[in-house]
Amino acid sequence: GRNGSLCLTEVINNPGDAQPTEAETAVWNQVSAVLEEAHGILAELQSYNGAGQEIREAIQNPNDLQLQEKAWNAVCPLVAKLKRFYEFSLRLENALRSLLEALTSPPYAPMQHLEREQALAKQFAEILHFTLSFDELKMTNPAIQNDFSYYRRTISRNRLNNQQLEAENEVNNEMANRMSLFYAEATPMLKTLSNATTKFVSENKTLPIEDTTDCLSTMACVCRVMLETPEYRCRFTNTDTMLFCMRVMVGVIILYDHVHPVGAFAKTSKIDMKGCIKVLKEQPSNSVEGLLNALRYTTRHLNDDSTSKQIRALLQ
Is-annotated flag, keyword Membrane (predicted)? Predict the structure, then answer.
């Protein structure tokens, strides 16, 4: 009911206040440890400048061994970072899974869960916020794939020449393949989470899909209402809260679109997609371009025939 959305509004406005109950504590602690690491991961990604210069020089002067070595030494620590980011995505996936289990377990309805388990609802929002922040940074950083493919090419070339390069923490082939797939995605963290959510639903056959999707559509609705309503908007002390809200909204829309049989864009969808997209489009374009791209490229049903032309036009 009405109070439910107010509760969640409080959670988003005063993120520090939600305290876990005893039953929630184990899940809360697991997720909390992951979220603590998330800040460091974002900071590292933000300062990731890549080895473009060194790589270019090495490629232009293939016979200059010193330049080859310089590029290799520049790329190795960067690949170690990329491996850390990838490994973190797996821990994030486990955290999301635990939260989904807690937020959809019977006998409560999704809204009751979000009211009763505010601390977990807040963590769910924070995971989505991290995920979209990570993907926005990744989308605008071509160095990542450039560095990684140079690393892989160098390793395979040296295998052919039987040279063993000394690389601390060398990434083995299977790991490198998984990392390649991960970084090839436009929005790798979001893709990881939507796959995890889909898997969660398919493995929990006894759980009505609605329990998961209602939990998501409720969160999307709360975010949209907060972004639309002047009384709430003036309580956003800073643009960070606005961004937090927009990222969470886009995150839950994308998860919903992957999990719900007909998706978020259908007429029967419980998410007011037109309203959500309009709210985003009212913001300065530099702060929402990444989010609109996520809706364009990471959703499943946007290009279905059943999606209204209006909605598609909004995302053109």
Answer: yes
Distance CA 98, CA 89 (A): 14
Q: How far, in Å, are 57, 71, 158 from residue 53 at the CA level?
A: 6, 8, 21
* Alpha carbons 265 and 257: distance in angstroms, whole number: 8
Per-residue pLDDT tens over the stretch 268-284: 899 999 999 999 999 88
pTM: 0.81
Give the model confidence (pLDDT) of 23-36 as tens digits.
778 888 999 999 99
- CA pair distance 68, 164, nearest whole angstrom: 14
For 112-140, give the secondary structure using H, E and C. HHHHHCHHHHHHHHHHHHHHHHHHHHHHC
pLDDT in tens, 153-166: 998 887 766 666 55
Residue 16, CA distances (Å) to 12, 22, 87 in order: 9, 18, 27
Q: Identity (one letter) of the amino acid at 167?
A: A
How far out from the chain centre does Cα 80 lie?
21
